[in-house]
Amino acid sequence: MTTNTRDFLVELGTEELPPTQLKKLSDAFTQGIEAGLKEAGLSDGIEVISYAAPRRLAVKVTNLAEKQQDRDEVIFGPPANIAFDADGNPTKAALGFAKKSGASVEDLSEENGKLKISRRIAGQATSELLAGIIQTSLEKMPIAKRMRWGSSRTEFVRPVQWLIMLFGNEIVNGEVLGLSAGNTSRGHRFHANKEITISSAADYKQALRDAFVIVDYNERKELIRAQVKAKGEEVGGIAIIDEDLLDEVTGLNEWPTALAGNFDEDFLRVPSEALISSMKEHQKYFHVE
Q1: 236-257 pLDDT, tens per residue?
Q2: Residues 113 and 165 both lie in one domain
């Protein structure tokens, strides 16, 4: 049977997320969604893509089925020899099993000496399941200390500001962390400080790029690496790229542009270890040798 599929997009907009934790948070969010889809029987044939920037966590799922597959369920109950009395009337054991299973006594049958109920369960529409899957994924994220804001009792690593959930080009009717889903994101805080309408999951990455946000974490990281390396060569040296610092800088910006700077040579009397440590820890600079 051919299953209709659509692409799904979720973006959770927040205040600035902890830069050193951004990749870890993104991975956990994605893994939680994958686990939820698998548990719901919706993981066949999908591709899951993560996005993360300082003010957003997002996941795109391609080829997601529009509904769960119908499935057959067999529930076994008490031994058949105690299910009916000598006159063939159902006993409390049979009646209790039928009631617990949401069936009638007429639906009961016997297999290998036990009562059983066989039934066909219709699959739910995927759109009805998505908000719950997202909420559960967020609740299970490894956040050491969650915070509250305003008068809300909602908790997350940082205050949440907006929520996109699109299934195809339709907004998913649902609520996560107290936010109702829509199709509106936000551009770069300074270069494009405005709302951005996302028409579909397929348009997401380019729509944010047009608003000066590179949402792909790894793309942003490699762009920073290349820019820093080029700037080091421009000033006649080699930029030393510490991977932990690179991850932190990647988590600090949405639209990277490397700049080369300098300071008074008199400061070179200070031990290089102290200079480098200060640049890395406080200014988030890559030093050049």
Answers
A1: 999 999 999 999 999 999 999 9
A2: no
